[in-house]
Specification:
By secondary structure, this protein is of the alpha/beta class. It has helices at 28-37, 43-46, 55-73, 89-96, 102-122, 135-142, 166-178, 199-209, 236-243, 250-259, 273-281, 293-301, and strands at 3-7, 82-85, 126-131, 149-156, 159-164, 183-186, 221-223, 228-229, 264-268, 286-290.
Length: 305
């Protein structure tokens, strides 16, 4: 079997998103990450009353749940054919593939969240999911606000995300509805991610990444910025910095899995965002989601992978 292991990004969070992992051996990753950042990270993972909101807290929480899921299945899961991560999930994929150590993955997550949040504070804006428009129509909707709205995520057929300033989003949303969009959903994020408005964040992140250490992974990784397999000579520092201003080409990433001969997708992290997108884009692939220990056991005992 040829499986792709994929990791969700910001947006895949919820109350008590990590509580199922309490008492599991993989919980030690939360303790290790808390040492790295110098504060207790467990509260944002186990509180049923609150959901992480600030960009940095969200990304750390998403990263830790994904890494606990990977820790739970990695020793008994057949070697994946390829790794991929949606948006911020690219860092989770690099960590799972051994390009980053776990500690460096935590540090990069903290810095990425910080510079992204600061850029969002300086340039207020947001993101809107648009259902029912193809890529071309979504791009045309953005043209209602030149320099203020862009296609940020091409996730699946009929599911895209626009990002930009508040004025730009309002204008693009009106045109999207006139073009036949079925539904518009405002996303709970703090900035216009994956657009040129995040250039200050990309520049700050690039300076940090220039001093970071990257190893050569043993498993291929797809960059969601262009849906291409990343070569061993690629500078991950450049890829990750550019990623903050580049649109997420997740639909193309999923189609690349088919061309690589992958027959199943395993999503590691809270929620079912990526398996849902796979159902729409590559329905022939088998789909698994591991959000907690029970799902990890089911995956490993099913004999399906």
């Amino acid at each position: 079997m040829r499986s792709a292991v994929v990791f969700p990004g910001q947006g895949s969070q919820g109350p008590a998103m990590g509580s199922e992992w309490i008492g599991h051996p993989a919980w030690h990753l939360v303790e290790s990450a808390s040492v790295v950042v110098g504060r207790d990270l467990s509260s944002s993972l186990v509180s049923p009353e609150s959901v992480p909101v600030r960009t940095g807290d969200v990304q750390l929480s998403v990263f830790l749940v994904s890494m606990m899921a990977w820790e739970a299945v990695r020793s008994r899961l057949s070697t994946p054919a390829v790794f991929a991560g949606h948006s911020f999930g690219q860092i989770s994929a690099l960590t799972a593939a051994g390009v980053l150590s776990f500690e460096d993955g935590v540090r990069l997550t903290v810095v990425r969240g910080k510079v992204a949040a600061e850029a969002g504070d300086r340039q207020p804006g947001g993101m809107i999911a648009v259902l029912g428009l193809d890529n071309d129509k979504a791009t045309w909707a953005c043209s209602a606000a030149p320099g203020e709205c862009w296609l940020a995520n091409d996730n699946a057929p009929g599911q895209v995300v626009l990002a930009g300033t508040e004025t730009g989003l309002a204008r693009a949303a009106q045109r999207a509805l006139r073009l036949g969009a079925r539904k518009l959903i405002r996303l709970s994020v703090e900035g216009p991610f994956h657009t040129p408005l995040m250039l200050p964040a990309a520049e700050q992140f690039a300076r940090y990444l220039s001093a970071s250490s990257f190893s050569i992974g043993c498993t291929p990784i797809i960059s969601n910025a262009d849906a291409e397999l990343v070569s061993r000579t690629t500078s991950w520092a450049t890829v990750l910095a550019d990623h903050l201003i580049s649109p997420v080409r997740w639909r193309a990433t999923q189609l690349r899995l088919l061309r690589l001969g992958v027959d199943s997708v395993v999503e590691l992290g809270f929620g079912t965002t990526l398996t849902s997108l796979a159902r729409r884009t590559v329905p022939a692939l088998r789909r698994w989601n591991v959000a907690g220990p029970a799902a990890a056991r089911e995956l490993l005992t099913s004999g399906g992978l």
